[in-house]
């Protein structure tokens, strides 16, 4: 059983990895879409978001950058987290997501009410958990087989 200090350090590592990946992916998407102004609030901006009710009808580049950044961050995150988390990855991902919602609310000075953002965040989190737990299962199965 892990100690509280170890769990707290793992949460800090997970948060650091999450925001480093988010800013890297956001910077790449920013460059790919040739936006004129890099917004440091990319990970926290839930107001500039795609509207799923208007599917593919003229999304702005900023909306697409925010969506792509979120989805790719949650895709890459489990591959990084399995390097130092060996159990209960789903718990760390949910903790990081909950802290991210709180930090986003503080940065934007309002609570996110955009259902499109919540749907994207929920789907990305679920996808991240599935990938992460599958990776852990294969890593643990391989280590059991080799010993």
UniProtKB/TrEMBL annotation:
It is found in: Membrane. It is a multi-pass membrane protein. It comes from the Eukaryota. Pfam families: SYS1 (PF09801). Its main location: membrane. The chain crosses the membrane at residues 12-35, 67-85, 92-111, 117-139. Keywords: Membrane, Transmembrane, Transmembrane helix. This is Transmembrane protein 244-like isoform X1. It comes from Priapulus caudatus (Priapulid worm).
């Amino acid at each position: 059983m892990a100690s509280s200090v170890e769990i707290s350090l793992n949460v800090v590592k997970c948060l650091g990895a999450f925001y480093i990946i988010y800013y890297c992916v956001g910077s790449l998407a920013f460059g790919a879409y040739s936006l004129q102004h890099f917004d440091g609030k990319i990970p926290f901006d839930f107001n500039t978001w795609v509207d799923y009710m208007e599917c593919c009808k003229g999304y702005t580049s900023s909306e697409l950058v925010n969506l792509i950044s979120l989805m790719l961050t949650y895709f890459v995150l489990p591959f990084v987290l399995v390097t130092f988390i060996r159990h209960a990855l789903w718990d760390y991902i949910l903790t990081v997501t909950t802290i991210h919602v709180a930090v986003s609310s503080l940065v934007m000075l309002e609570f996110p009410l955009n259902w499109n953002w919540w749907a994207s965040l929920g789907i990305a989190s679920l996808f991240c958990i599935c990938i992460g737990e599958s990776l852990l299962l294969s890593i643990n199965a391989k280590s059991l087989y080799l010993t």
